[in-house]
Amino acid sequence: MPKIADEVRSARRDQIVAAARTCFALAGYHLTTMADVAAQAGVSKGTPYLYFPSKEALFIALHEGWDDGLAARVNTAVGALPGLDRRSPRRVLEAVAEAVAAHVGEDQQACRVQMEARSLAAHDAAIAAVVLAADSRAHKQIESLIAAGIAAGEWPAGTDPALAARLFTAGLYGLMAQWHLAPGSFSFDAAAAALAGSPGTRRRQQHARGTPMSVTSHRAAFSPHPRDRDEDLSPTAGRRSS
Description:
Elements: H1 2-27, H2 34-41, H3 55-79, H4 89-106, H5 108-120, H6 125-151, H7 161-181, H8 188-196, H9 201-209, H10 217-221
Helix pairs in contact: 1-2, 1-3, 1-5, 3-4, 3-5, 3-6, 4-6, 4-8, 5-7, 6-7, 7-8
């Protein structure tokens, strides 16, 4: 019986989260009320409060859900790379960009919520803490990946890994904002791929010489569970799903 109760509770929570995603995406954070979420979910006005103490907590859960979903997609994309490509930090970065593009296209409402969270972070301390923590993890992980690529000769020796990582993530967020303002006005897939860079001769030459990198190191790096790897490059590293 407890198992059934847990399953019912989990299903109801998912129902409320889905309703909130629709409401926040259509009306925005400030105009959406918990009563709106309840109506969208088809439950009583007090039901959302059984799962989330406030609208802010529900919004943060949506933001974290986006990050968790993206991390899972990145893990899958990197894990699907041929063994030779998994030895290439640059190819792994391209897979990350491809995964982000796919995630944006598949879950447009959640992406809108994620983008609004970045604006709200300027005035809401709780939301700011979540956004800044996610940004810090992403920058550190991408920086580590680019540093490995520099060591492998896939980027110029003078490349600043920290700056390159920040430009990469800032570019992705900028593309998200532009894409949502004018959907279909450009190919998000192509733009994201351009940020990571196309496969080049230098990378292929490094492969031919047998760059001494672990075949599984980058796939393991994107594991969503910290206990499964030494260094996690996924957007939600160090945090469990809500």
